[in-house]
């Protein structure tokens, strides 16, 4: 395991430790998760406020140097959602049934990741399919089991991913603290329903552990296949460009099929995959460009 380049590229972004080819949680984290998995009568976690305190204690047990402090109002956001915005019946079910299930997902995360990497080179005719950090212009495919996806999302809900190195690699937000902070600092019904959608996903995977796998693939157009006479600037060129756009006419309603030739339908949600889903953005970002020539 230690010699796998794909795992090496991901270790700075995972909350787990690696030793003797084994991924594992620190012992204090394991004890906290086992307590949480036994339900609220044992863990005493029966409110959003107490859940956030437990999350903070688990984060402290990780003792990772790159684990930044959470958003200032995340505490209030967890409390607001679980103690006020959902019914007492829903909250009781959440803390009695779902939170223990989430703790079990986290307890299985090390073994799920180990299994993922052990099988990663045998799924697609020897091609690499393990989770890894792809650099610019690197093509690749990743196969993830749905149970592993669930465990990784639970990890984000508990805000356990290290984040300090993500900015340098231009990686988007992953922990849920901003999501819950936003519902407190600038409440909107859209934000509340977004969290309810995510919470419902957690309820579903705790009720029935998902099977099957999901693939993510990045395809690139190799520069070797492009005409030598054409220059293709890097992303920074477009980000910093101050060149004005050509003359155009914007229509904010109607359908592209109703337009004459020479029209484009564009919907750019965000420069990151997923857009601003973990802040105030839409839960499902999309970036289509349709041409009507």
TrEMBL record:
EC number: 3.2.1.143
Keyword terms: Hydrolase, Membrane, Transmembrane, Transmembrane helix
Any one GO CC term of the record: cytoplasm
GO molecular function: poly(ADP-ribose) glycohydrolase activity
Domain PARG catalytic Macro: 236-282
PARG helical domain ranges (all copies): 87-218
Residues making up the signal peptide according to the UniProt record: none
Transmembrane annotation, as ranges: 141-163
An annotated GO BP: regulation of DNA repair
Top-level taxon of the source organism: Eukaryota
Family: Belongs to the poly(ADP-ribose) glycohydrolase family.
Protein name (record): poly(ADP-ribose) glycohydrolase
Lineage: Eukaryota, Viridiplantae, Streptophyta, Embryophyta, Tracheophyta
């Amino acid at each position: 395991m230690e010699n796998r380049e794909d795992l090496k590229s991901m270790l700075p972004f995972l909350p787990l430790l690696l030793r003797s080819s084994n991924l594992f949680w620190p012992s204090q984290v394991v004890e906290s998760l086992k307590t949480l998995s036994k339900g609220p009568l044992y863990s005493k976690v029966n409110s959003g406020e107490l859940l956030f305190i437990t999350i903070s204690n688990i984060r402290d047990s990780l003792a990772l140097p790159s684990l930044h402090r959470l958003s200032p109002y995340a505490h209030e956001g967890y409390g607001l959602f679980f103690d006020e915005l959902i019914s007492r019946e829903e909250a009781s079910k959440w803390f009695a049934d779902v939170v223990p299930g989430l703790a079990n997902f986290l307890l299985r995360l090390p073994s799920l990741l180990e299994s993922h990497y052990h099988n990663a080179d045998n799924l697609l005719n020897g091609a690499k399919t393990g989770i890894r950090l792809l650099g610019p212009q690197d093509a690749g495919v990743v196969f993830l089991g749905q149970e592993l996806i669930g465990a990784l999302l639970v990890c984000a809900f508990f805000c356990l991913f290290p984040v300090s190195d993500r900015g340098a690699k231009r990686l988007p937000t992953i922990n849920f603290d901003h999501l819950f902070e936003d519902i407190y600092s600038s409440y909107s019904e859209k934000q509340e329903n977004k969290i309810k959608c995510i919470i419902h996903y957690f309820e579903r995977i705790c009720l029935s552990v998902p099977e099957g796998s999901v693939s993510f693939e990045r395809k690139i157009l190799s520069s070797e296949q492009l005409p030598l006479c054409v220059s293709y600037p890097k992303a920074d060129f477009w980000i910093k460009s101050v060149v004005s756009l050509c003359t155009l006419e914007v229509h904010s309603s109607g359908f592209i099929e109703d337009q004459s030739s020479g029209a484009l339908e564009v919907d750019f949600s965000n420069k990151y995959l997923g857009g601003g889903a973990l802040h105030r953005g839409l839960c499902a970002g999309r970036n289509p460009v349709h041409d009507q020539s």
